[in-house]
Amino acid sequence: MPSPKELWERFLITMKSRAGLVCIVTVLLFGTTAGLARDPLATFLSILASFSVFFVITLSLNIETGLTGIPQFGRVLAVLTGAFAVASIPGRILAAFMGLPAGLDYGDDAVNYKVVPKINEFLATNPALSILIFIFSLLLAAACGAAIGWLCSRPAIRLREAYLGISLLAFGDVLMWIGHNWEPLVGGSTGVFMPDPFAFTGGGMTEHIIIVSVLVIIAIGALILVEMMTRSPLGRALKMHRDCELAASVYGRDIVKVRTQSLMIGSALAAIGGALYVFYTHTCKAITFERATWTFWPWAYMMLGGVGSNIGVFFGVMLYTVIRYNIVVRRHLLAGIVPFDPIWLDMLLGGIMLILIVLFMPSGLVPEKPVTTLPPNKIKAMLEEIRKKTKEKG
Prior knowledge:
This protein has 17 helices and 2 strands. It starts with a helix and ends with a helix. The protein has a single domain (39-393), classed as ABC transporter involved in vitamin B12 uptake, BtuC. The chain has a two-stranded antiparallel ribbon with strand order 1-2. With 394 residues, the protein is mostly helical. Helix 2 (18-36) packs antiparallel against helix 3, helix 3 (40-67) runs parallel beside helix 10 (204-230) and helix 3 (40-67) crosses helix 14. It has helices at residues 4-16, 18-36, 40-67, 75-88, 90-97, 109-124, 127-158, 161-181, 183-186, 204-230, 233-243, 245-250, 255-281, 291-305, 310-330, 345-360, 376-393; strands at 192-193, 283-284.
């Protein structure tokens, strides 16, 4: 167990590194953005909510692309799967339990906007059931995401590089348009309202704070679990697949199995991100899940932070989220100054930032570091023991 002095020295070393500088800049920018807003608390919560959802989704992308090397251009597919699952199944179960319309007409906006408020009134008086429904919904989203990941792994067995990437991208668009045009699923073009498992908190700002707190806790838990997986034998197998498939197969790794595991785990995590988003917004509308936001922005977050680096993804998502928030909120000030509609400013600057990252910082703000199988202190102790034995023999 390191002493307090050693921990402090490690902290100072970290703060002087690139990761430390990125951390300081991110915290200052975040604090300044919230402090200068008209409603600091609402701004603080809004940024945290957006960060939490996209951090979970970008972590899932980092598993598949950063660690395994799969060209995942269909991230929106798993996000949609999670969102559709929790928007269509738990609400119908509750409606059927209460004797309300729960069949194909549940997605009809004339029915849905009457049914969901009654469900929320019921949940507001049953905290235990509300929490159970929330947990069930996340597990359902993860299971459906893992299933869609398994299905995606079938073409991944044969396809490579651009062919696989384009196929995954097309799958995501197909599911989005199915949800947009087939009303019984999630309301078609009008969408559906979500049952509110946090209605028992009383609503208003209190409920908002609790929901955002839950999102942040889940995001941090996802980071811990993914970091543990990265340091496990499975994580090393994923990296071996990324670096050299031939070497992985020579050492006895089943390439198909590794690729399937990566897609299933990543898709399950992305589906949870989609479920968290619809719970936060209280609605699910298929057309809002377009590829630019739910596939390309996570790519931008990952590239900014560092491909393959979980901590880098954390800072990349946070820094990009704060920058995008400032652009979206203040871009109206540039109306008449820039020679284009300021509504496209965040897309323009996002594209410019990606070009700059690729040209001048291809490894990201916090590049991936080699992960040792054993903790550094054990490795040092082993080296010292080897040196002692060498001296004794010499």
